[in-house]
Amino acid sequence: MIDLWRARWQEGRVGFHLSQPHPALERYWPSLAVPDRAKVLVPLCGKTLDMRWLAQAGHPVLGIEVAPEAIEQFLAEATTPVSRYQQAGFNISRQGSIELWCGDFFHLHIQQAAEVGAFYDRAALIALPEATRQRYAFHLAQLVPPGAKGLLVSLTHEGGESGPPYSVANQEVETLLSPNFRLTLLEESEPDDRGLCEKIWRLVRRGPLN
Ligand SMILES: C[S@@+](CC[C@H](N)C(=O)[O-])C[C@H]1O[C@@H](n2cnc3c(N)ncnc32)[C@H](O)[C@@H]1O
């Protein structure tokens, strides 16, 4: 699967990339009341401008992305100097308060995410085939502390099992995530002309008592 993503980036087949921050981020992030300086984990981040939006909102950002092409394109869009280093198999680039870790999200260890206080998933869960989504939900839960809040943007479409993006029914989102997160469905868009319907979820990592 990782080879497929590398090929997509190399060939420029990145229709999922938005030329501006996702409207749901601007609309709902403030209502989460995430503490001002909390570091935000952005799994499967691509080169999303959502990371710049989060940084401008005062959050250090930790983006995880397997395709170096995505990371280089993201970094090239700003003039801020970049520092680079390596850690545990990840090539890390830091630009201002944004840290991009190039490697497999599933190889990120809890110690490496120690400072994370919030998270943002747009098109990460739905980028993964069914067999991997359970693993993703579990790994995300391992990486964020009890009480951490986040937004998740999922979608459904009428293309059956085809993907990515995969059509992930609301029931599946709840089944995957509710063991470790409290979920609230904030918004569901009307289906577009391809039957594609986006859902915005608020998540709070459960603690031992809730
Ligand atoms: C659908 S795109 C979404 C990107 C971004 N979140 C956005 O909103 O534009 C999914 C991204 O996940 C990356 N990816 C896929 N599997 C990955 C993995 N196991 N670890 C890290 N990144 C991965 C792909 O290269 C791709 O950039």
From TrEMBL:
User: Principal localization?
Assistant: cytoplasm
Q: Which domain of life is it from?
A: Bacteria
Q: Name one Pfam family in it.
A: TPMT
rRNA-binding as UniProt keyword? no
Per the UniProt entry, the Enzyme Commission number(s) are 2.1.1.67
Location comes to:
Cytoplasm
Give the protein name, as stated in the record.
Thiopurine S-methyltransferase
Lineage runs: Bacteria, Pseudomonadati, Pseudomonadota, Gammaproteobacteria, Oceanospirillales
